[in-house]
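Protocol step 4 of 6: structure prediction from sequence.
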Amino acid sequence: MADLSGRVVVGCVGPMTLIEVEDVRDRLRDALSSAGRVDVDCSGVGETSICFIQLLLAARTSAAARGIGLHLKQPISASMRDALERGGFIGMSGPTRKADEFWIGVP
């Protein structure tokens, strides 16, 4: 759904495994072709596989190449945060690293 500023929110709800990622991929591709900014809402994400995380990284790279902002709405779900921690994408403890900012926002 787009608002007047050209912002589109792509909602992700339920398990984000290989099967579900195809739908999200298509919605992200559509959003990136028509918006100036894309916000991905992962607050309702359940089981999270690495393919979903890879999809978000690829979408972020594609958006940057087009000059489009791609951001994760905060907060992300606990299960997604767990998958990001287990995969080493965000720190499990200690201060927020620069690399964490895309995933968990800027403190």
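Step 5 (inspection) to follow. The helical segments are 18-34, 50-66, 78-86, 101-104.
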